[in-house]
Automatic annotation (TrEMBL):
Source species, domain of life: Bacteria
Region (Disordered): 1-66
Biased composition regions of type Basic and acidic residues, renumbered to the chain: 1-29, 53-66
Zinc finger (dksA C4-type): 85-109
Lineage of origin: Bacteria, Bacillati, Actinomycetota, Actinomycetes, Pseudonocardiales
Signal peptide: none
Name of the protein this chain belongs to: TraR/DksA C4-type zinc finger protein
Length: 112
């Protein structure tokens, strides 16, 4: 994968993630989750509200984390270091970069 193709793919993915994170924040419940049993609320309903709130917060946080990874990869493209493993300096294989253009390690060092 060449750097320009990666830049386009990363930029598109960045925009998609930012929209998803924005949507999650915009569609948070209008009212904070109330205490269990408040105003005769059924405990199951309370649990559902808590779960939905946590899922939306998690989605927004995960979107932010992925955008940060993409920003770092775009920075590496600008620096000319994109496509090289940050641990060993070897070229990252094209198959890995096609699957995950923001990868900053080769397969051997993927767990670091």
């Amino acid at each position: 994968m060449d750097a320009e193709k990666a830049r386009r793919a990363l930029t598109e993915e960045r925009e998609r993630l930012r929209e998803m994170g924005s949507w999650s924040r915009e569609h948070e419940p209008a009212v904070a989750v109330q205490q269990e049993g408040a105003l005769g609320q059924h405990p199951g309903d309370y649990g559902s509200e808590v779960e939905e709130t946590m899922e939306r917060e998690g989605l927004a946080d995960e979107s932010d984390r992925q955008v940060a990874e993409i920003d770092a990869a775009l920075g590496r493209i600008e620096e000319g270091t994109w496509g090289r493993c940050r641990v060993c300096g070897q070229q990252i294989d094209d198959e890995r970069l096609e699957a995950r253009a923001q990868a900053d390690t080769c397969r051997e060092h993927a767990d670091r």
